[in-house]
Amino acid sequence: MLHPLSYISVRSNTVERIAPRAARRGRSIRHRDMSPEQLLEALLGAGLPRPCAEFLNLILGHFKAGCSARITDSVQRVTGRSPRGFADYARDHRAAWLPGAA
Fold first, then answer.
1. Which of 7, 45, 62, 92 shows its CA 20 to 30 Å from the CA of 51?
2. Is-contact 85 11, C-beta < 8 A?
3. Taking the chain, what is the end-to-end CA distance rounded to the nearest angstrom?
4. For the whole model, what pTM was predicted?
5. Distance between CA atoms of 53 and 45, rounded to whole angstroms?
């Protein structure tokens, strides 16, 4: 169960939403559905220590089950302001993301 003040995003991220953005930057994202067993073997094969691979497998299983797809009103209730997306945040604080920015 999610905490009643949990905040995921202004809207859920999906591969379908993110892939076009990555493509505009010359990158690609692909999704391959895997069973938990396949994912664990892939993570171990990539060199992750077993405890890390098992934990990541657990977390990603919750994402796959849709736990991160829920949008809440927590930001509005806590701050009194509407939440904003990452793109808005990054644009407003662009200087902080640039090399050499203070």
1. 7
2. yes
3. 39
4. 0.53
5. 10
The alpha helices in 1-102, defined as continuous H runs, are: 15-24, 36-45, 50-64, 74-79, 86-92, 94-97
C-beta of residue 40 within 8 angstroms of C-beta of residue 54: yes
Domain range summary for the chain, segments of one domain joined by +: 15-97
Residue 71 tokens, joined: 């949008």
Q: According to the model, what pLDDT value does residue 82 have?
A: 84
- pLDDT grade, residue 10 (50/70/90)? low
Amino acid sitting at position 71: I
Rounded Cα distance between 102 and 18, Å, is 29
How many whole angstroms separate alpha carbon 62 and alpha carbon 54?
13
Query: Cα–Cα distance between 69 and 45 in angstroms, integer?
Result: 29
